[in-house]
Amino acid sequence: MRKLLLTFALSLVGVMSFAQIEGKWKTIDDETKQAKSIVEIYKKGDQYFGKITQLLIKPTNPNCTACKDDRKNKPIQGMEIIRGLKKDGDEFTGGTITDPKTGKTYKCTITRSGDNLNVRGYIGLSFIGRSQTWQKVN
After folding, report:
1. Is 54 exposed, middle or buried (0-12, 13-18, 19+ CB in 10 A)?
2. Is the pLDDT assigned to residue 86 strictly greater than 70?
3. What's the pTM value of the predicted model, to 2 decimals?
4. How far apart are the first and last CA of the chain?
């Protein structure tokens, strides 16, 4: 009976951690399919945020000149690009993601599938947007 309870407890912890998005993730460029940056996702209170901790491809401009908010002219490396996500079942939603290349900010939804994050940025309705798959960094 104890072995059964221990197995159940370990399985429950495994399932609960599977849906978590905290950690470091490698972003992949849509056009070149090359690794572009490392984003670290972390939790503050009941919300999730993500910042670029490493650039793997040197940008033409190291600052976000196209950003229109508090990130304008700030360095891309160290920039908080994900803000205000909340966990809703297996999804993380309700926040925003900013593309430092264009300076545009989109609504964001993230789901985890194994060692991948499915990151969707969109305007208005979710089907009007773009998705990327980010890979877990060990």
Report:
1. middle
2. yes
3. 0.84
4. 35
